[in-house]
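Tokens as discussed.
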């Protein structure tokens, strides 16, 4: 059963490039994960501080393993300095 995830992140205005660099690295590494079916990053045209991830995972176990990767842990550690507020995360599964 696939897991669908959407994450919305809002960068601090002076941290847009720092955040984008970390997010781009996450995309490069995450797409190599066996459980990853889709991992896309978009940046809003209207508000350059807003980034949106669209993800599809083969399983909850795969998503859990993803969250234990070093590049994800690095992002989580740096997030308070980069983000205006905590990421909004929406999870769904195909029924």
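Sequence:
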């Amino acid at each position: 059963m696939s897991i669908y995830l959407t994450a919305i992140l809002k960068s601090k205005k002076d941290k847009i490039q720092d955040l984008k660099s970390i997010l781009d690295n996450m995309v490069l590494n995450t797409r190599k994960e066996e459980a990853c079916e889709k991992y896309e990053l978009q940046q809003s045209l209207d508000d350059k501080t807003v980034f949106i991830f669209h993800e599809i995972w083969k399983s909850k176990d795969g998503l859990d393993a993803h969250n234990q990767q070093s590049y994800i842990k690095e992002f989580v550690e740096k997030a308070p300095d980069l983000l205006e507020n905590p990421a909004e995360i929406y999870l769904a599964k195909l029924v």
